[in-house]
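Per-record layout

source: Streptomyces violascens
name: Ribokinase
length: 300
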Amino acid sequence: MDNPGMTRITVLGSTNMDLVAYVTTAPRSGETVTGHEFRTIPGGKGANQAVAAARAGAEVAMIGAVGTDEFGDRLRATLEHSGVDIDLLRTTEGPSGTAHIVVDRDGANAIVVIPGANGSVTSLSHADRAMIAEARSLLIQLELPMSAVLEGAEAARRNGVRTILTPAPARPLPPELLAVTDLLVPNEHEAATLTGISGDPERAAAALLAHVPEVVITLGARGCLYASRAQPEPVAVLAPPVTAVDTTGAGDTFVGALAVALAEGRPMMDALAWASSAAALSVQRPGAATSMPYRAEIDA
Ligand code: ADP
Ligand code: NA
């Protein structure tokens, strides 16, 4: 199974089934509206980043949990079909994680996430820690219990593995987690939540360098901003101009591809340009995981 020529990445994160209702106008409390379409789409930030990194060309292992309900098998199968190693994906008695999403005519989302099985991942096993220790990078987000996220990042730090944290859903972060994070990748909204600075990503990036050595703030169609303690003046990387049809999962595609490029030893600016190409490809196609590009497409 081991392929010494490939870069290994471990993802410690969530799997969710997205239950998506498409409506003209989202209902308010107490109101019922008739929608026009319903879809179930495998997702979760952890699973999406795992699929993105696998398609971008890494050997990826996923640590997390699915439930024993009707969604568990499909969540597993989606990861497996993308070539993600799911030996360490637990099955927990009870429901899988779900995200209940209402998308209106303007493409705006209202979302309820119920953690389900994800909530059962409160600590790591010896095998989980070993899988993290063997990787080049560990990808984490905030959809699993903080105790497990922290344990994973600490295991990565002890073993010299680069930890890349997507601070989503946006919330204040414990200092212990920031202390073991190498690269923080918030979107503009998450950066504002973390710093209290909105509308000024340059200043937010500078503020975040007080907590982590490197930051990338993603700015949607405007690209991203990179800053590091070694080079504190933020550098902008523009997004390729494309026609977006569905930006769901753009951030996860970006992070997955960025992790692969960095793990392969590419310089940060090259890695950011490559990740921007991957994310730009994904927004031109519907869906999240289904829209993520393969390595050859990104290279082209
Ligand atoms: P998230 O999905 O986490 O909210 P962003 O919306 O900031 O994250 O998008 C992440 C990255 O995806 C951006 O930095 C950019 O490279 C790319 N991207 C997002 N939207 C577009 C777009 N409309 N056109 C081109 N690239 C995009
Ligand atoms: Na997409």
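summary: Residues 8-14+45-96+117-299 form a domain with the UDP-N-acetylmuramoyl-L-alanine:D-glutamate ligase fold (CATH 3.40.1190.20). Residues 46 and 93 are 20 Å apart (CA to CA).
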